[in-house]
Design a protein that fits this description.
Layout (H helix, E strand, L loop, with lengths): L4 E6 L2 H12 L11 E4 L9 E4 L1 H5 L8 H7 L4 E3 L3 H18 L3 E5 L2 E5 L4 H4 L2 H16 L3 E6 L2 H8 L7 E4 L1 H8 L12 H9 L5 H5 L3 H19 L10 H4 L3 E12 L2 H22 L2 E10 L5 E12 L2 H15 L5 E12 L9 H24 L12
Parallel strand pairs: 2-4, 7-8
Antiparallel strand pairs: 1-6, 1-7, 2-3, 5-6, 9-12, 10-11, 10-12
Helix pairs in contact: 1-4, 13-14
Bound molecules: magnesium ion.
Length: 395
C-alpha cells in the first residue's frame, strides 16, 4: 500500500507571525495586506529580506533581493525586524497542536512539518477532505494560514505544498508526478540547490522531466551522490522515514554549533566536524562504550534542517574514524548551499568494539590508538584543550 504523507507549511511564516504580533500590540494595519517585508539590520550581512507579503511579492519584492533594491521598488515599503523568540513560540504552539492529532510527525523547519497519515486514514477519513478541514482549523485557532501538500512520500508532499499559495491544499501523488512537475524548471525540484542547477543546466538538463530521463551514470559522474539523489527525486523516489522526536531523541552523544555566519567553506566545516569527532570520541571512551550509528545535521539560515544518518556494521570510538564517517555523511546530505548550523551525533551504543574480533595486529593497533587518544585527552584536560593535538590537524 502506498503511504500518504502530508506536508504542512505556514504561508510567509515570519511575515504572518509578525503581523499577529503587531496586531496583538495594537498596530492598526495587518501587514499581510500591505507592501511589507521582514528584514534584519540593513547594515549587517543579514540585512536581507527573509519574508515578503503577497502585495510586496506582486511588485517583485521577494527574497533574495536586498532591502536597497526593495526600497527602490516601493518608497513606502514597511520594513519590520524579525522577532525569532516570538516565531519560536508560534511554531511551538502549532507543532504541539499537531502532535496532539498525529503520533507520526516530523518538524522539518520552524514552520513546516511532515505527517504520516497512512495509519490515520481509518480515523480521520479521506486525506484531501481532512486537509481542507485541518487548514481551516489552524486558521481559526492560530490566525495564520498554511498550505498542505499531500503525496506518497515526503518529497512529493513537500513539493505539493509549494504549488500555488496561500491557504491551499494540493496533491502530488506518485501517479500525478509526471503530469504535474516534469515540465517545471529543475530549480523547482526539492533539494536542487543553486550550484546543482547550474551544473545541470551546463549539461543541458533544464526541466525535472529531462533530469528524470537522463542517464544516471552520467549524473553521478558530474554531480557525485547529489546526482543520484536528484535523479531519484525527479522520478518521485524517496523512501526516507518520518523522523519523529522519539527517533531524534534516542540517547546519544552529540554536539552542534551555530556558525558565526552562513558558510559553504568546506575547510571550516571539516574543522568543525573534526572538533565534534574529537569530543564525541572522548565522551564515548569516558563512558567505555562504542557507537554504531552516526548522524549529521545541517541547518540553513531559514531554519531548514536536514539530517542524515547511517548505521555501521563496525562500531566506532576513535576520533579519526568518526571524522571520516562524518565527512562522508556530510557530503551525502549537503546541497552545496551555505549553512548556518552543523551538528554531529553518535547513537546506538554497544559495550564492545567489533575490533576485538579482528586480527591480532589490527587489534593491537586499535589498542595503541586508544592509549594515545586517552593520553592526549589527559594532557589537554590538565593544560587546556589545545595543548596537544595530532600533527595532521595543524592548520
Ligand atoms: Mg513556509
Amino acid at each position: 500500500m502506498e503511504k500518504i504523507i502530508l506536508h504542512i507549511d505556514v504561508n510567509s511564516a515570519f511575515l504572518s507571525w509578525s503581523a499577529l504580533k503587531l496586531l496583538e500590540e495594537g498596530y492598526k494595519k495587518d501587514i499581510r495586506n500591505e507592501i511589507s517585508v521582514i528584514a534584519g539590520d540593513p547594515n549587517k550581512r543579514h540585512g536581507v529580506i527573509v519574508a515578503a507579503s503577497i502585495p510586496a511579492k506582486r511588485i517583485g519584492i521577494k527574497p533574495p533581493i536586498n532591502l536597497y533594491e526593495a526600497r527602490n521598488k516601493c518608497k513606502s515599503l514597511l520594513v519590520i525586524k524579525p522577532d525569532y523568540n516570538y516565531y519560536y513560540s508560534k511554531s511551538k504552539a502549532l507543532m504541539d497542536y499537531l502532535k496532539g492529532l498525529f503520533p507520526e510527525i516530523q518538524q522539518y523547519s520552524i514552520d513546516e512539518c511532515f505527517i504520516d497519515y497512512t495509519s490515520m486514514k481509518f480515523l480521520y477519513g479521506d486525506e484531501v477532505k481532512y486537509a481542507y478541514k485541518l487548514k481551516d482549523e489552524i486558521y481559526e485557532k492560530f490566525g495564520f494560514t498554511v498550505n498542505i501538500g499531500i503525496g506518497n512520500n515526503k518529497l512529493s508532499a513537500k513539493m505539493a505544498s509549494d504549488f500555488e499559495k496561500p491557504n491551499k491544499v494540493h496533491t502530488l501523488y506518485k501517479n500525478e508526478f509526471k503530469e504535474k512537475v516534469w515540465d517545471k524548471d529543475i530549480s523547482q525540484l526539492f533539494m536542487a540547490g543553486k550550484s546543482s542547477c547550474k551544473k545541470l543546466k551546463e549539461l543541458n538538463i533544464n526541466t525535472i522531466g529531462e533530469l528524470a530521463t537522463a542517464d544516471v551514470d552520467m549524473l553521478v559522474r558530474n554531480l557525485k551522490s547529489q546526482g543520484k539523489l536528484l535523479y531519484e527525486y525527479a522520478n518521485c523516489i524517496d523512501d526516507s522515514k518520518i523522523e519523529t522526536d522519539k527517533y531524534l531523541d534516542r540517547k546519544g552523544i552529540g554536539f552542534s554549533r551555530t556558525l558565526e555566519y552562513d558558510t559553504d567553506d568546506i575547510e571550516l566545516i571539516y574543522k568543525t566536524l573534526y572538533s565534534f569527532s574529537k569530543k564525541i570520541s572522548k565522551k564515548l571512551r569516558e563512558k567505555k562504550v562504542y557507537a554504531t550509528t552516526l548522524m549529521v545535521t545541517i541547518r540553513d539560515f531559514e531554519f531548514k534542517t536536514s539530517n542524515h544518518q547511517k548505521k555501521y556494521t563496525n562500531s566506532f570510538v576513535f576520533t579519526e574514524d568518526i571524522y571520516e564517517k562524518a565527512k562522508e555523511l556530510f557530503n551525502e546530505v549537503w546541497n552545496r548551499e551555505e549553512i548556518r548550523l552543523i551538528g554531529l551525533r553518535a547513537v546506538d551504543f554497544t559495550n564492545s568494539g567489533n575490533y576485538q574480533l579482528s586480527l591480532f595486529d589490527k587489534n593491537l593497533d586499535n589498542k595503541n590508538k586508544e592509549v594515545i587518544e586517552n593520553l592526549i585527552d589527559k594532557i589537554n584536560n590538565e593544560y587546556g584543550s589545545n595543548s596537544i593535538f595530532k600533527g595532521n590537524k595543524l592548520n
